[in-house]
């Protein structure tokens, strides 16, 4: 079987979830399908998984094709994904027979639309609060935001995809620190008002996205983020980020406490990743 056709179906349990192929996911006309890499907590995919968990949306997991050339066929592994979506980033979200969603803001809007009626509203009805939620999400998720700048800290294939240059890299760390400080000040102000959330008095998309993305600088313990054969290198990299002096100085107990509270109170922990647990 070619490596871009492989599926994982030995069992379908939290420890070993089922992954269908991209071809199968694209051909389906019912259900919500999201692409993942087994064993890897790819940040945007993991955040979308947490969003869907909070919204009570059952997910069908599909295999996101890896970069590179299939060793058996010589074909680009991501050719079909590009044909379907005109991009190759992780994750892609399919719902029923609608068009695929690849951008976080569209995925969030869809999750809010199709979520269970009794699930928390992650986008507040109040437009002032909603503006706060989208603003905080943007400084974490959007272009030139926290994750974008983390990716261009070093020269790598991923960094070059997001515009790495010596000049951009030199500015990236300061921007990451600025975002951490902004979020910490927001949490401090909310604490004064008696709230543990970033916006208002209830969980919002800003909490779910930041708590998930924060594992890139605040290592989560195994009871939240299990170690797998596939993610051990990634988690080591995240731990190294937390030790960069400027980041270490910006992180506060509030940031860590918020991560732990949101992930353990509102999300599925330990995270269900598939792959090979260590």
Walk me through the topology:
Blueprint: E1 19-20, H1 22-27, E2 32-36, H2 43-54, E3 59-63, H3 79-85, E4 93-95, H4 104-114, H5 127-141, H6 146-151, H7 157-161, H8 166-192, H9 205-213, H10 232-242, H11 245-250, H12 253-266
Helix pairs in contact: 2-4, 2-9, 5-9, 9-12
Which keywords apply here?
single chain; 278 residues; mainly alpha; Glutaredoxin; Glutathione S-transferase Yfyf (Class Pi), Chain A, domain 2; 2 domains; 4-stranded mixed β-sheet; 4 strands; 46% helix; 5% strand; disordered N terminus
Q: Can you walk me through this structure?
A:
- It is a single chain.
- The protein is mainly alpha-helical and 278 residues long.
- It folds into 2 domains: 19-114, Glutaredoxin; 127-266, Glutathione S-transferase Yfyf (Class Pi), Chain A, domain 2.
- The chain is 46% helix and 5% strand.
- It is built from 12 helices and 4 strands; from the N terminus they run βαβαβαβααααααααα.
- It has helices at 22-27, 43-54, 79-85, 104-114, 127-141, 146-151, 157-161, 166-192, 205-213, 232-242, 245-250, 253-266; strands at residues 19-20, 32-36, 59-63, 93-95.
- It is globular.
- The relative contact order is 0.14.
- The model is unreliable at 1-11 (pLDDT under 50).
Total count of domains: 2
For the biggest β-sheet, the strand order reads 1-3-2-4
Shape type: globular
Q: What is the correct CATH architecture of the largest domain? A: Up-down Bundle
Q: Please write the string of helix (H) and strand (E) elements.
A: EHEHEHEHHHHHHHHH
Helix content: 40-55%
Q: Would you tell me the structural class of the helices and strands? A: mainly alpha
Average pLDDT figure: 93
The number of strands is 4
Low-confidence stretches: 1-11
Estimated share of beta-strand residues: 5-15%
| Helical stretch tally | 12
CATH topology of the largest domain: Glutathione S-transferase Yfyf (Class Pi), Chain A, domain 2
Q: Outline the biggest β-sheet.
A: 4 strands, mixed
Cα gyration radius (Å): 19 Å
Q: What is the level 1 CATH name of the largest domain?
A: Mainly Alpha
N- to C-terminal distance: 26 Å
């Amino acid at each position: 079987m070619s490596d871009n056709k492989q599926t994982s179906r030995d069992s379908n349990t939290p420890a070993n979830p089922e992954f269908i192929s991209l071809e199968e996911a694209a051909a389906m006309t019912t259900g919500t399908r999201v692409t993942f890499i087994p064993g890897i907590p790819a940040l945007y995919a993991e955040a979308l998984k947490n969003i869907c968990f909070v919204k009570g949306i059952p997910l069908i997991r599909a295999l996101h094709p890896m970069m590179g050339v299939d060793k058996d066929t010589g074909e680009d592994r991501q050719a079909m994904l590009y044909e379907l979506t005109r991009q190759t980033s992780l994750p892609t979200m399919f719902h029923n027979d609608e068009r695929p969603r690849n951008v976080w803001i569209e995925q969030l809007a869809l999750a809010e639309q199709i979520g269970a009626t009794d699930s928390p509203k992650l986008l507040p009805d109040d437009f002032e609060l909603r503006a706060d939620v989208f603003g905080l999400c943007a400084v974490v998720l959007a272009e030139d935001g926290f994750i974008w700048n983390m990716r261009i800290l070093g020269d790598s294939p991923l960094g070059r995809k997001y515009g790495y240059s010596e000049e951009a890299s030199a500015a990236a760390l300061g921007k990451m620190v600025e975002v951490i400080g902004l979020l910490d000040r927001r949490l401090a102000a909310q604490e004064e008002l008696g709230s543990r959330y970033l916006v208002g008095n209830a969980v919002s998309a800003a909490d779910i996205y930041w708590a998930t993305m924060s594992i890139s600088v605040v290592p989560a313990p195994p009871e939240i983020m299990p170690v797998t054969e596939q993610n051990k290198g990634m988690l080591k990299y995240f731990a190294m980020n937390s030790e960069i002096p400027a980041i270490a100085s910006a992180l506060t107990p509030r940031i860590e406490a918020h991560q732990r509270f949101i992930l353990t109170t509102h999300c599925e922990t330990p995270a269900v990743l598939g792959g090979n647990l260590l």
